[in-house]
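Blinded run. Sample ID left blank on purpose so nobody reads anything into the name before looking at the predicted structure. Input follows.
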Amino acid sequence: MFVGSKEANGVLALHAPGFSDGVSDGISDWRLRIHRARRRVILIVLTAVRLRRGLGHPHRLNRVDPVFFIPLALGDEYGRFIEEQTKHKAICDDMQIAKVRLCVVAYTV
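Blinded prediction complete.
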């Protein structure tokens, strides 16, 4: 993002603070230093708040790709896995139907 512009000899020169080579073309060095320090402090405080709230990356399960490796990974529990997945799918479908019905009832009331 370009902050300011100067016109020298009819040529438009733009200044980008993040891409400075140590020579500022219109923005004081102290302003750049204050901006960088303020940004650092904000990022550190934001990170501390997120860590305190537990908003880090969730613990992810290892993926099993492609799908035909699932029976090999589950071994003897493959049959039970299929049963639980079938029950889970049925419950999810029932929940979706209930949500739609609740929305229709809430909308008509």
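Unblinding after everyone has recorded impressions. Residues 62-109 form one domain.
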